[in-house]
Amino acid sequence: MVAFDRRQTPGLPVQCAELVPGLIGQDAHWFHRARVQGVEAMATLVESEPADRLAPFPGHMIDRALFDREQVERAREAGAECYFGCPVRKIDPAGLVISEDGRCWRARVLIGADGPRSPVGRAVGRRNSALVMAQQVTLKAAGSSSTTDIFLSHRLIGGYGWLFPRGNVAHVGVGVVTAERRGIKQHLGELVERLMAAERVQGGVLSRTGGFIPVGGPLQGASVHGHCLVLLAGDAAGLANAVTGAGIHAAVVSGEMAGETARSWLDGDTCAAEEYDDELDDVFGASLRRAALRRAQLMQVWRERKPDPVELRRGWIAYPEYWAA
Can you tell me the distance from the alpha carbon of 14 to that of 63, in angstroms, rounded to the nearest whole number? Predict the structure, then answer.
């Protein structure tokens, strides 16, 4: 197995809020090495109304760079050759891969675990149709906390704001649909000012990050091109939750599924592609469909007028209205 990554260093730069669900240890038993702290509750603030607290809401804040490095080491221990700082120049869905330095590989299986704007997905005609742009800053925390704060507002079109505690620092970020990206810096600045005034964070910005999140729902995960099986996993397959943007757990699980499917294909299982898509749907389908529905309903309101607090609550996972039929 050969893996290519255009990044120079595994896990860097981090483009992630670093929150994972409490059950991730069932599928990534090594995650505890990268665990920074636990999360016990979620506080959702809708417009200027008092916070609604959801507890328990179990989760973990992780060191994403270390988390990724652990996965690379596990892959290498299993025999993978991992090339970093090695962009791919050309991908032929029939299995030809040409790196930026001109080297060529011919594969029987291609796995695209390469993010929301996946070159592998593009090579086989599958692209994430909708994206949210997110920007985040890290500041010193004014005190310890095990609660994530979510900020819902009609001004954050197609997204939301957050404060995630991570030891002695806190991540503060906002996400909006890409069409509204010109205002994202202002939205983030206003949220930081609000949190400083509330004495939740303090000092100057320690680091910045950002990126895109797929919110258009899952794509077809598998296809066959000649003698080559092409699989998409994680954000490349549109497996991020269309409401929360959460995608780390889905990436871990689907990545393992892709590896198992690749082995089955190489062992002669001609139904492996169909089975992969069926398994993706079994594991992620129901939750992703609900998220896509709630997102579509709220986006329709945004196209017509400003959503009110009742509508914003229906579109967020902390409220019973989100889970209602």
Answer: 9
b/e per residue, 45-80, with b = 16+ CB within 10 A? bbeeeeebebeebebbbbbbbbbbbbbbeebeeeee
Full domain range(s) for residue 148: 131-214
* Same domain? 93 vs 180: no
Same domain, 289 and 159: no
Total count of domains within the chain: 2
Please report the pLDDT score of residue 325 as a whole number.
Answer: 85
pLDDT 10s digits, 187-230: 999 999 999 999 999 999 999 999 999 999 999 999 999 999 99
Mean pLDDT of 59-88: 94
Helix, strand, coil shares of the chain as percentages rounded to 5? 35, 30, 35
Residues 122 and 141 in one domain: no
**CATH number of residue 65's parent domain:** 3.50.50.60
